[in-house]
Amino acid sequence: MILRLGSYLQDRYEIQAIIGTGGMAEVYRAFCHKLQRTVAIKVLKQEYNGNEDFIRRFTQEALAAAKVNHPNLVNVYEVEHTDGVYYIVMEFVDGITLKEYIRQKGKLEQQEAIGIAIQVANGLGEVHRQGIVHRDVKPQNMIISSDGKVKLADFGIARAASTETLSQESMGSVHYISPEHAQGKPTDARSDLYSLGICLYEMVTGRVPFDGEEAVTVLLAQINQKPVSPRSLNPEISEELNYIILKSLEKRPAARYQSAAELIQDLEAASRNSGDILPRVQETHGTGGDTILFHTADVTERASQADGAREETAEGEEETEDEETSPTDRRLNKLIKGVGFVLLVLLLGGGIAAGLILSGMLRKEPTVAESESAETESSSALSEKQTYVPYLIALSSDEAEEKLRADDLTLVIQLRKNSDQFEKDVVMEQEPKAGTVAQKYSKVYVTLSLGTAETELSELNLVGTEEESAKKTLTEKGFSVEEKSEYSDTIEKGKVVRLSPEKVKKGDTVTLVLSLGKEPEKVKMPDLTYNTEDSAKQALTEVGLTLGTVTKEHSDTVPQGQVIRQSVSNGTEIEKGKSVDLVLSEGPKVTAVESTQASEAASRYVASIDTNFTLSNLIGPDSGATSITVMVRLRQDVNGQTVYRTLMEPRTIRGDAILPLRFRTIEGAYGVDTGYVEIVRTDNGQVLQSFDVQFFKVQ
Predict the structure, then answer these.
(1) 592-698 has CATH 2.60.40 classification
(2) Which sequence positions are flagged as catalytic?
(3) 576 belongs to an annotated ligand binding site
(4) Any idea where the domains of the chain sit in the sequence?
(5) What would be the CATH architecture of the domain defined by 96-315+327-337?
(6) In terms of pLDDT, which residue wins out, 464 or 336?
(7) pLDDT tens digit string along 37-56?
(8) Maximum Cα–Cα distance across the chain
(9) What radius of gyration do the chain's Cα atoms show?
(10) What is the C-alpha separation between 636 and 643, in angstroms, rounded?
(11) Keywords assigned by UniProt (predicted)?
(12) Under 8 Å CB-to-CB from 257, ≥6 apart: which residues?
């Protein structure tokens, strides 16, 4: 799908220019207005949007690639799907591809080529450490920036694309494809190193080792032909670099470099112009399959002989099947001749891939790379009773059975085992391997994945261990850790009390519950209001609490010297031994009228009361068995404010007692002729009885 220049994706990425197009996508330069940076956006072509399996693999691989970060990799920022458009946002590198650089220079000097190869190998090493196989290493995917840094693009994405059949648009890729990839066999890191070897070959010679007008021609050359020695095409390169390139291009993965680090080591040695990279003893195989051991001098001599032989081939002489051609090569040549006409028809009629699949040379690329490449051979054209074993890895048992049935083969589930790499109930191993010639109606044995193994946390014996030790064990096993705390009577503070859930898989989160030590004893907070300071202190002591800070303030409702409020609410659970702060009453503020009254000794307002109050009338039949603390006070309204004066301090009496109220001279507020004498229960402030009194001015 072509995006219009100036349009936006996600209201964030402004499309500025189209900078490239390929078999599966167009690449645009865009500006991210959110992060204020230029990015590259790879947009999947419309014809792939309907292929759900392709979309799934494309997205999974791109997401995996986004997790890899390295200076020699074009970093993937995000993978998105908006309004039917699938796209990947990547780092934008301002530079040219290695392919264009080679076109401009013709060929590169040895030191420059080695420097580029080392940078790419460093990037590949990081990709391989993350469990990703690139599968599309070629100069078109290597970008050289203006500062000379080389970045490898499209890692992880090529894997999804490579599962599709090859087309004419893939001609650029088949020149760099490994023999096992060309045959549809499983690929691994060594396949990428083969492709890098071809890139290195092209850098120092200006040409690829295998070429042809059709993709099938190139593929068959990758599988069957030996490359012309690069030193015969460019004598200026060293014998050491010549050896590195030819070792990288070995047909058998086991004979190549086994890791990017191993390749880098030899490249650095070649850069120092050292001969140390040549093996002291080289193992090879003769035509009869016997092992031949020869020394460094033999290697040099044989390399020279091979150079001469390859020069003749390069000059146009046709290679023939002689005594040095392996039985495998001869059988393969017979197979090619046997199906040549069919291949030609298929190529003309609609595609390289169909012909290759028919000949058993090309199989769909595996979804998950296997550790060792299968090295099956095609012995001859198939008879009517024979068929090729299809690739079943990562298929469900039903899908595998259907695929085998189409080839007249029978599925047998031989084993089930755990795997971190394969989802549950998909094929993780098969025997015979894909591409093997089998008799029709024979059995293919598979191993199904049980998914990631579950771990019983109890088996780790972490309860009672130190926090750091437990966290280290869990993270090393691939779990995320979430911490919580709780009291424990049996586990020391800071150690593990328990873990949850009971069973976990790699990548799951484990809740690690740590001990706070023994939970302190708690008591219920008593109600201290209307208590004096001494009685409040005694009440706190009785329940195991202590008296904290005591402050005072005026109160119109709580008598002087009694508790107005407490720092911990009544009924609250509080840790034993804690302190409680109190606020005591200083009584009401002295009003202006009262101040005037005090100063006017010549006159005052007084009242009196002479009566009795029977408490049993309020408490009831059981009054004799109870006691109550009461006080007597005067209440008056003075200039809109309620003013209290204590007439009798708090006193505890029996519930059946008669309380005498005999106050012959009650001095009230100056100028106020009414008031109320109140009997108040001090534990809750309840007014038990109120009596009206009249005040008279006296001299």
Answers:
(1) yes
(2) 136
(3) no
(4) 8-91, 96-315+327-337, 382-446, 454-515, 522-585, 592-698
(5) Orthogonal Bundle (1.10)
(6) 464
(7) 999 999 888 888 778 877 88
(8) 149
(9) 46
(10) 5
(11) ATP-binding, Kinase, Membrane, Nucleotide-binding, Serine/threonine-protein kinase, Transferase, Transmembrane, Transmembrane helix
(12) 190, 193, 247, 248, 263, 266
